[in-house]
TrEMBL record:
Major localization class: secreted
Reported function: Suppresses food intake, delays gastric emptying and decreases heat-induced edema. Might represent an endogenous ligand for maintaining homeostasis after stress.
PANTHER family referenced in this protein's UniProt entry, alphabetically: UROCORTIN-2 AND 3 (PTHR17575), UROCORTIN-3 (PTHR17575:SF1)
The keyword Transmembrane is annotated on this UniProt entry: no
Subcellular location: Secreted
Protein name as annotated: Urocortin 3
Coiled coil (UniProt feature): none
Length: 40
């Protein structure tokens, strides 16, 4: 059990990091699309 808990916490932290990375990439893509849209 003492080994399971840190592993699950680590996996949760990794998932959170991935989600944040995906969000930042999505935000960057949305910003890029907005800039392209404004040019047209």
């Amino acid at each position: 059990l003492s080994l399971d808990v840190p592993t699950s916490i680590l996996s949760v932290l990794i998932d959170l990091a991935k989600n944040q990375d995906m969000r930042s990439k999505a935000a960057a893509n949305a910003e890029l699309m907005a800039r392209i849209g404004k040019r047209k």
